[in-house]
Design brief:
This protein has one domain. It is built from 4 helices and 2 strands; from the N terminus they run βααβαα. It has a two-stranded antiparallel ribbon with strand order 1-2. α1 crosses α2.
């Protein structure tokens, strides 16, 4: 699943160790931000790339793994 372009609530919940309900709230916020920027959004899913940028910022994959 890691190669899929969009993430669902269950993946976000697992990634962040939060409830599925809270993961849906995160998706709603990220999609609202994207919609304001003029992007097309799909309810219940969010771009994996945008999610990672917003959660992890500008860190590279190596920094994320090391916890830096």
């Amino acid at each position: 699943m890691a190669n899929q372009y969009l993430m669902r609530a269950d993946e976000i919940a697992e990634e962040l160790d939060v409830s599925k309900a809270y993961a849906y709230k995160i998706i709603q916020k990220l999609n609202a931000d994207l919609a304001k920027k003029g992007f097309l959004v799909i309810s219940g899913k969010v771009s994996r790339k945008y999610f990672e940028e917003q959660i992890y910022g500008g860190m590279s994959d190596g920094q994320i793994e090391k916890g830096a």
